[in-house]
Amino acid sequence: MFSFVNMKNEELQNLFSDPYFERFKFEKVSGRYVTNKNLKRLIRHLDNSFQVKQIGKSVEGRDISIFEIGTGEIKILAWSQMHGNESTTTKAVFDLLCAFKRDSSNLVLQTILECCTIQIIPILNPDGAKAYTRVNANSVDLNRDLQNLSQPESSLLKRQYDKFQPDFCLNLHDQRTIFSAGKKPKPATLSFLTPSKDEERSIDEPRKKSMGLIAGISSDLSDQLPGCIGRYDDSYNIHCAGDTFQTLGTPTLLFEAGHYPGDYVREEVRKYVWRALISCLYRISIENVQADNYEAYFEIPENEKLFNDIVLRNVSVDGSIKEVSIQYKEVRKRDKIKFEPVIQKVADEIPNFGHREIDGEGKELSLSGNVKLAENVIVNKILLNNTELRFKPW
After folding, report:
1. Which of 158, 170, 212, 359 has an alpha carbon within 20 to 30 A of 143's alpha carbon?
2. Sequence ranges of the domains in the chain
């Protein structure tokens, strides 16, 4: 089985190195707020290196663009920011396009371009991206609209699928910080799913291909993200994009960018998504048939919801020893995303792990301004025996 880390060729070994990624990272776009304004900046940077078309408009009339790269026979359709507030994979797509532009002579990238024709929609939901919401301007979740096709954005995706008839689909998303990779205190920095094709979750050849691909990606990144790669539950929902295309017989992979310690703006995670995309595209290029390794897919631990952003343990609340969990709420303020800490739960015991854990050593926990410490309260300032605790997420 191919593995980047075991290749003797120095060019291939260097591909996954931090210096290589930093050479091609599109530095002009960072943070969580990514919109069509950033996409236009990328298009100017690429300077006609690839074919770019406007293939439709959003509800509010924003352009939806598609890139086409490569000249090979294997056809791959990828889309990102179907949910407007899920931008990490979009940044990784930007970085991927920059690498193809500036280092197309690299053996791996050259092989991909020669073997594949790739169509990428970087921002499928530009209205949701602008508003920083999951849904589109009509408050519809596009990833639940692939049967009704009630929205221009989901209809556009289905039309592009029908027109292009891809051999593989890549559905690119973000996931919340609550997910662990299995039951251990390991964040699910990357998660994957091969969607089901029916209620019985049947495993046919197309599913085996996507399972084998995911198993290979996990193998390629396992040394870099030990224990931090997860697998989503594959319950069937025909209204979802992945389930729809899998049902139609196209091997489909769902990518989920998750949490990396301290990386709430997801600048580290974009690097791992970029590497996962490279791994996926190269494996498709050199192996085409991925079914042989499909059983290794089930060795990837299934995601669990076992994390909070902050857990305070052994604190005194109104005279009783308690534990308190805090979760960040993402709030758009102008063109920035701010993280507001909100008290999620006050209980005798919090079973979840904390991305940050604080031992209160029995000290009194309180909020400033005589605000009652209770669930769903935004924490402007929290005190431990009158000493302020700071909760900036990075």
Report:
1. 212
2. 4-305, 307-389
